[in-house]
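PROTEIN DESIGN WORKSHEET
SECTION A - STRUCTURE
LENGTH: 309
TOKENS:
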């Protein structure tokens, strides 16, 4: 999956995951993975919320036709209303602010709609100039830096024009991985089919690889441990693994001495927050997993993982 490392002029290893932007400028980020069931929408919503809690102006764009992020924030009616959607912005020159709504959680949302798959088909078959640059041209460029400090997109779990639009518009990625036999293969597919082709034409950086939805022990050969071992054993991945998922002492793990358990853990509060149509911070501000989402927000702000040690 990963080639040998060399070092660039900054002393950081060169990597297929891209260089690192440390300018601290306004930033657009896609939460994406070519595999469903990895918790993309949960991460996108809670990342937007934590950035907002850091006093930033934040826009969350839901590009997933399933609309999990939109519904999870209580925008069910907007999801079912096909009269006003991102398609109006792409094809009818509508002002993007006309389809952006304030949430109760200090950030704004451009919701998904149930006709988003039709919008995608129109991108493919229509007479559209630079079909993969619509989101960049019509939404991100007009709004990033002027209206919003950060723009987060929740992308579909399959290769599509919508996914390509998200990557072209953002060029910064957060990649969630859930335990299971398909975890690493999903990462490889995302790199080979989605990231590598675009990197021939533009810089695309992976800011963070995020082990998510972990629930098993890691002092035994569980799928949780296998995922963490695979990520932490690749030298070329180390700069992309957040502190909350990094393991350098497996002897401490096997002795049961490593606290807290690495990765974003599966918590009832996270599931219930979705049912209550709230981000985790607003549903359960004492949940121990908020520190993970907060670190992700700091990674977005810095444009890189910042080590504690």
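SECTION B - SEQUENCE
RESIDUE ASSIGNMENT:
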């Amino acid at each position: 999956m990963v080639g040998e490392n060399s070092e660039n002029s900054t002393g950081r290893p060169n990597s297929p995951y891209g260089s690192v932007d440390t300018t601290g400028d306004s930033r657009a980020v896609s939460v994406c993975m070519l595999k469903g069931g990895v918790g993309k929408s949960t991460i996108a919503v809670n990342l937007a919320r934590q950035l907002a809690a850091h006093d930033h102006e934040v826009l969350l764009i839901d590009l997933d036709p399933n609309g999990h992020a939109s519904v999870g924030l209580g925008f069910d009616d907007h999801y079912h209303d096909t009269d006003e959607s991102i398609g109006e912005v792409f094809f009818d020159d509508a002002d993007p602010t006309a389809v952006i709504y304030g949430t109760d959680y200090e950030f704004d949302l451009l919701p998904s709609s149930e006709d988003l798959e039709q919008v995608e088909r129109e991108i493919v078959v229509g007479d559209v100039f630079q079909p993969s640059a619509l989101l960049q041209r019509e939404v991100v460029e007009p709004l990033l830096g002027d209206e919003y400090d950060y723009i987060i997109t929740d992308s579909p779990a399959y290769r599509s024009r919508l996914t390509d639009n998200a990557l072209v518009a953002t060029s910064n990625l957060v990649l969630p991985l859930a335990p299971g036999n398909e975890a690493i293969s999903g990462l490889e597919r995302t790199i080979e089919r989605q990231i590598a082709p675009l990197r021939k034409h533009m810089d695309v950086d992976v800011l963070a690889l995020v082990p998510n939805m972990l629930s098993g022990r890691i002092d035994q050969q569980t799928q949780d441990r296998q995922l963490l071992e695979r990520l932490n054993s690749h030298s070329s991945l180390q700069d992309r693994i957040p502190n909350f998922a990094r393991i350098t002492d497996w002897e401490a793990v096997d002795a049961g001495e490593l606290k807290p358990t690495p990765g974003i853990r599966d918590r009832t509060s996270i599931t219930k927050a979705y049912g209550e149509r709230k981000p985790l911070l607003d549903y359960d501000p004492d949940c121990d997993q908020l520190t993970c989402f907060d670190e992700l927000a700091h990674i977005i702000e810095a444009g890189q993982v910042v080590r504690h040690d």
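SECTION C - NOTES
Residues 1-23 have pLDDT under 50 and may be disordered.
The first strand starts at residue 27 and ends at 31.
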